[in-house]
Design brief:
By secondary structure, the chain is α/β, with parallel strands linked by helices. It contains 15 helices and 11 strands. The protein has a 6-stranded mixed beta sheet, sandwiched between helices. A 5-stranded mixed beta sheet has the order 1-2-4-3-5. Bound molecules: nicotinamide-adenine-dinucleotide. Nicotinamide-adenine-dinucleotide binds next to α8 and β7.
């Protein structure tokens, strides 16, 4: 196979996810039919959304909604606004959501959505129109008991609020359980905004215990300074770790003595951009290879590949982003005895608290921040331990162990329903 083709295959997030699902189902002893069911979403909708722009012109945006498997319950997953969104990526992301739901034992399957657009170049009103247009386009297949969206890259609680309002107007009743990641006043949950980073922090703490690393004084590098990365930087800083590197889409900052996280948080914009304010920056590539104890990719896919996996200095890599490490790089890191906590476990805090939000919406009774955090802590610690133990007893890497646990409930539910 030509070098270029080989690389394209390795960075194809759908193909690599499918290959691990296949391995996981084989290890669990399921027949090939189960893999045939699991390898693609059961439903994939592509929509075209006409939007009147501020200058009076009309632009047609393309959006997607993937529903991977609804054998366990309604599907659930975020909506991404990004110029590089593709159908394949949305499919892979929906499969990862199914796995996360299985790992943290939620009554959901996975879903995911995306719109090809660049919100950084759109006005507030244009963003509102595209958000509402998307909901109108997918309204037939979503709903509180069908498929429940949430925020993801470049979407936030304001966008969830517009989407909720549009859905409630279409259905002619208020349906807070239609979407999660909402503002508190519209039925959002305490702790949702920082939930992904909280979950990652718990995974870092558990992984550090296994590696005998003290969080206090540990050197941490975080790629991405958006929702996941910035809260994480704050939590690590508050726990006494030294955050020596952070980055955004435009570059990275490095200080071996530790960055001033509170200052950076204060100066970042709503898209997680902060490095533009500094003259002395390094590249994202250099950031990943910095000398540190803990490395957290919290931005986008395919950042740790066969090209740089040998250069990673950290002893622990915790994937806050979805799909930041290729399968070949996973193999190299595992061989080098670097403890890799996979995305489907590490970033499951977001969907866990989204589930708590949905439960609170359904019962109309709301929990305190302490209650939410206590429940999240128990879920994340238990899930980490299950996966770590399985990886040791079955002598498989943490990713495969996570996939085995993530896929099992969905496979069992599909079998009981008589689908396979
Ligand atoms: P966000 O939009 O808030 O922030 C993204 C960050 O990544 C920004 O700092 C941006 O500048 C940076 N970035 C974008 N392109 C980049 C590039 N090419 N190189 C380096 N940095 C780049 O997004 P988020 O919600 O923090 O999500 C980040 C990752 O975490 C994604 O993979 C997402 O799927 C995953 N995740 C997020 C949540 C959540 O609840 N927010 C939950 C689970 C997983």
């Amino acid at each position: 196979m030509a070098e270029q083709e080989k690389r394209a295959e390795q960075t194809d997030v759908l193909a690599s996810t499918q290959s691990v699902i296949k391995k996981a189902l084989d290890k669990l002893g399921y027949p090939d039919e189960m893999y045939e069911l699991m390898k693609e979403p059961i439903r994939m909708l592509t929509v075209r959304i006409p939007v009147r722009m501020d200058d009076g012109s009309t632009r047609i945006f393309t959006g997607f909604r993937a529903q991977h498997n609804d054998s366990v319950g309604p599907t659930k997953g975020g909506v991404r606004f990004h110029p590089n969104v593709t159908e394949k990526e949305v499919k892979a992301l929906s499969i990862w959501m199914s796995l996360k739901a299985g790992i943290v034992d939620l009554p959901y399957g996975g879903g995911k959505g995306g719109i090809i657009c660049d919100p950084r170049e759109m006005s507030f009103r244009e963003l509102e129109r595209v958000s509402r247009g998307y909901v109108r386009a997918i309204s037939q297949i979503v709903g509180p008991t069908k498929d429940i969206p949430a925020p993801d890259v470049f979407t936030n609680s304001q966008i969830m609020a517009w989407m909720l309002d549009e859905y409630s107007r279409i259905r002619e009743f208020d349906s807070p359980g239609f979407i999660t990641g909402k503002p508190l006043v519209l039925g959002g949950s305490h702790g949702r905004e920082s939930a992904t980073a909280k979950g990652v922090t718990i995974c870092i703490r558990e992984a550090a215990k296994k590696k005998g690393i003290d969080i206090e004084g540990a050197r941490v590098v975080i790629q991405g300074f958006g929702n996941a990365g910035s809260f994480l930087a704050k939590f690590m800083h508050d726990a006494g770790a030294i955050v020596v590197g952070i980055s955004d889409a435009y570059g990275a900052l490095y200080d071996p003595e530790g960055l001033d996280i509170d200052y950076l948080l204060d100066r970042r914009d709503s898209f997680g951009t902060v490095t533009k304010l500094f003259k002395e920056t390094i590249t994202n590539e250099e950031l990943l290879e910095l000398d540190c104890d803990i490395l957290v990719p919290a931005a986008i896919e395919n950042q740790i590949t066969e090209k740089n996996a040998h250069e990673i200095k950290a002893s622990i890599v915790v994937e806050a982003a979805n799909g930041p490490t290729t399968m070949e790089a996973t193999r190299i890191l595992t061989e080098r005895d670097i403890l890799l906590v996979p995305d489907v476990l590490a970033s499951a805090g977001g969907v866990t608290v989204s589930y708590f939000e949905w439960v609170q919406n359904n019962q109309g009774y709301y929990w305190t921040e302490e209650e939410v955090e206590g429940k999240l802590e128990a879920v994340m610690v238990g899930s980490f331990e299950n996966i770590y133990k399985l990886s040791r007893t079955r002598k498989v890497d943490m990713r495969l162990a996570a996939y085995m646990i993530g896929v099992r409930k969905m496979a069992e539910a599909s079998r009981f329903r008589g689908w396979v």
